[in-house]
Amino acid sequence: MSSFKEAVDYVSLVIDAIGVLVILVGMLLATARLVMSGRSHADPYRRFRQDLGRGILLGLEFLVAADIIRTVAVAPTLRGTMVLGLIVLFRTFLRMALEVELEGRWPWQRANGSDRKMTTGT
Fold first, then answer.
1. Where in the sequence is the domain holding 103, given as residue range(s)?
2. At 2, phi and psi to the nearest 5?
3. Per the structure, how many domains does the chain have?
């Protein structure tokens, strides 16, 4: 049983590392895009923030997945599950806040807008 626990710990650590790497690569790519484009874009700061936010969002997905794997497979205790719930709640709030910052609206508003277009024919 301990070898399974060690394997799951290792897998979750690798996924954590991928999440951090995704965030770092997103930062580097966003910065490179800002430097390369210079002032050619209408609002370079806004595009930089959007690019950076997308990298952070993707990295957070990996970090949440690693937390879920670690908590559920390794230590399925009530305390561990509660801590996981708080972590997922915090990261979900952060993810939604970033999405509002990037898109300028709540995630569910997109679906409502597309439904309205379908029903009105516009």
1. 2-120
2. -65, -30
3. 1
Instruction: Return mean pLDDT, the chain.
Output: 80
Tokens representing 40 are 């050619």
pTM for the full predicted model: 0.71
- Contact, 102 vs 50, CB < 8 A? yes
> Would the CA dihedral through 49, 53, 54, 55 be positive or negative?
positive
The answer to whether the beta carbons of residues 73 and 8 sit under 8 Å apart is: yes
Which 3 state secondary structure label does DSSP give 42?
Answer: coil
Supply angle C-alpha 22, 24, 25, rounded to 5. 65
Nearest in space to 101 (alpha carbons), one of 48, 25, 33, 31: 48
**pLDDT at residue 42, rounded to an integer:** 78
- 1-57 pLDDT, tens digit each: 578 888 888 999 999 999 999 999 999 999 999 888 876 767 888 888 888 888 988
